[in-house]
Design a protein that fits this description.
Layout (H helix, E strand, L loop, with lengths): L12 E7 L4 H9 L1 H5 L3 E6 L4 H7 L5 E4 L4 H11 L4 E4 L10 H7 L7 E8 L4 H17 L9 E3 H6 L10 H10 L5 E9 L2 H6 L1 H16 L4 H8 L5
Parallel strand pairs: 1-2, 1-4, 2-3, 5-7
Antiparallel strand pairs: 4-6, 5-6
Helix pairs in contact: 10-11
């Protein structure tokens, strides 16, 4: 559970969560974030067209409920446009927080123009998940590239300087990391930030690993994000 300590140095986080029919995982994420609201931070939920009942149940947990056309990059940019905090923290709807993550970000806020991410932990108990998460965190530290499930945070002026997330249906986290990395090296905070392993569990661990490697390699050699999105989730983009 996140810290309920008061802000220091006047730093205010805008926590931006895009969602689309997330179900119970969204509720758990929003409940984790309530102590941060009590500490004066801002929680913004940006819905991309969920069933109305799911959104109605979430409204009491957020400071701002926004509606946007679907697309994670589009939703996060819309949330940032309406945000009032000094630092944007982008979380997936299936994220679960560790103690003190808000303080860790605020402690990093002493220098202008910073950004970074947390180490990630996968929710599943299978031993392979421990290997996968270690490799994800190691790769991110070496490459300076963050993924969305690592909870990217960025000082608002730096976010505006790179133009926010690129309007593409996949790999928007990779691309904004590339742009931010040209300006500042990312901070790698330990966390961990837990993310759901449901995709690996439902589609097969090895199959999902190979798919993600193939998609990232294809992106690095110039395959369009729209084409990759159709491979990742047919019907996207």
């Amino acid at each position: 559970m996140a810290s309920a300590q008061p802000n220091h140095d006047g730093i205010r986080l805008s926590i931006i969560v895009p969602c689309l029919n997330e179900g119970p995982t969204l509720g758990r994420c929003l409940r984790d974030l309530q102590p941060l609201r009590c500490a004066g931070h801002e929680l913004i939920l940006v819905d991309g067209g969920s069933e109305q009942a799911l959104i109605d149940n979430s409204a009491i947990y957020v400071d701002m409920l926004l509606h946007s056309p679907p697309g994670r990059a589009r939703q996060m940019n819309y949330g940032a446009k309406r945000a009032s905090g000094d630092v944007y923290w982008f979380l997936h709807a299936d994220s679960r927080l560790s103690e003190g993550m808000d303080r860790a970000i605020m402690s990093a806020a002493g220098s202008a123009g910073f950004w970074g991410r947390f180490d990630v932990r996968l929710s599943g108990a299978h031993p392979l998940f421990r290997v996968i998460e270690r490799m994800m965190n190691w790769r991110s530290r070496i490459s300076g590239i963050a993924t969305g499930d690592q909870g990217i945070f960025v000082e608002r002026r730096l976010f505006d300087q790179v133009g926010g997330f690129p309007q593409q249906p996949l790999m928007e986290d990779i691309e904004i990391s590339r742009r931010l990395k040209r300006l500042r090296h990312p901070l790698s905070l330990p966390g961990p930030l837990e993310t759901s392993s449901r995709r690996w569990e439902s589609q097969g661990i090895i199959r999902t690993i190979l798919l993600m490697w193939m998609l990232r390699l294809a992106y690095w050699v110039g395959v369009s994000p729209r084409h990759l999105a159709r491979l990742y989730a047919p019907g996207v983009g």
